[in-house]
Amino acid sequence: MTSPNEFWLNLHRLAESFEAEGLNSEERLENIVEQFQNMPRIAQRHVLGDLLRVITALPDVYPLVVAAINDTEKPAARVRTG
After folding, report:
1. For residues 9 and 3, is the Cβ–Cβ distance under 8 A?
2. pTM > 0.85: yes or no
3. Per-domain boundaries in the chain
4. For the chain, first and last CA: distance in Å?
């Protein structure tokens, strides 16, 4: 069984890995694509499938997480002001 925070820990690691790829977005993307091109073709296809699954789902996750934060902050704001 996976840890309940595994997704969020891996997201954090991915963000750190992305930042470590270069000094700016352009350099990072160049390095990431170059590494992808150096992979064996079979690995490229697998990674491309993983990338597609994640990038198509994450735009849906962000607004839900923002809404969850807003929902959890509302009761705390009422307690402080009430």
Report:
1. yes
2. no
3. 1-38, 40-82
4. 42
